[in-house]
Amino acid sequence: MRAPAVSKPKREPKRLLDSRPQLLALQIFVLIAFFLLWHVLTATGLLNPFFFATPLGVLERTGKDLLTAAFYRHLGITLLETVLAFSIGTVAGIAIGFWFARAPLVSAVFDPYVKAANAVPRVVLAPIFALWLGLGIWSKVALGVSLTFFIVFFNVYQGVKEVSPVILANARMLGMNGRQLLRHVYLPSAMSWVFSSLHTAVGFALVGAVVGEYLGASAGLGYRIAQAEGVFDTVGVFSGMLVLTIFVIVIDACVSAVENKLLRWRPQTSTTVSTH
Amino acid sequence: MTAALSLQDVTCTFAGGYTAIAGASLDVAPGEFVSIVGPTGCGKSTFLNVAAGLLRPSDGQVLVFGDELDGLNPHAGYMFQTEALMPWKTARDNVAVGLEVRGTTRSVALARADAWLERVGLSDFGDRYPHQMSGGMRKRAALAQTLILDPKIVLMDEPFSALDVQTRQLMENELLELWSADRKSVVFITHDLEEAIALSDRVVLLSAGPRSRIIGEYKIDLPRPRDVAEIRMTGGFLDLHKAIWADLKGEVLKGYARTSRV
Ligand SMILES: Nc1ncnc2c1ncn2[C@@H]1O[C@H](COP(=O)(O)OP(=O)(O)OP(=O)(O)O)[C@@H](O)[C@H]1O
Ligand SMILES: [Mg+2]
Question: B175-184 burial by CB neighbour count: b if 16+ within 10 A, else e?
Answer without folding.
Answer: bbebbeeeeb
